[in-house]
Design brief:
Layout: H1 8-21, H2 23-39, H3 47-54, H4 60-67, H5 70-78, H6 84-99, H7 106-116
Helix pairs in contact: 1-2, 2-3
């Protein structure tokens, strides 16, 4: 084993033993995978059913926050729109601003933003 890496078989064996000895952890992992499939739109499960199941695990505080605006979560699952392009542009602007920190004013920032667009 180069660089002290743990063989994948030992990792799997450790995880399986850990999950076998801690049923709460097993339930949490199972429901977390269900939530992930639901959010990736790879599941036909109902949001309420998945959240009910997750509320009985250590993910209860996460579920409580999601339930504060269930309508928004449901809309995100059902509607085709995404804010990813906007988030990408915001990230690009922040990166340009960080690289220029303390070097110039708004005029140069504007020129760099418009130049790369």
């Amino acid at each position: 084993m180069a660089n002290g890496e743990i063989p994948p078989e030992l990792d799997r064996a450790f995880v399986m033993r850990l999950l076998g000895e801690l049923p709460v952890l097993q339930a949490t992992v199972t429901v977390a995978k269900r939530i992930a499939r639901l959010l990736r739109r790879q599941s036909d499960d109902r949001l309420d059913a998945v959240l009910d199941e997750a509320a009985a695990t250590p993910l209860a505080s996460f579920v409580a926050e999601l339930r504060k605006d269930t309508a928004a979560v449901q809309a995100a699952l059902e509607l085709p729109w995404s804010t990813s392009p906007v988030e990408g542009q915001i990230n690009r602007l922040k990166m340009i601003k960080r690289t220029m920190y303390g070097r110039a004013g708004f005029a140069l920032f504007r020129a760099r933003v418009l130049q790369t667009a």
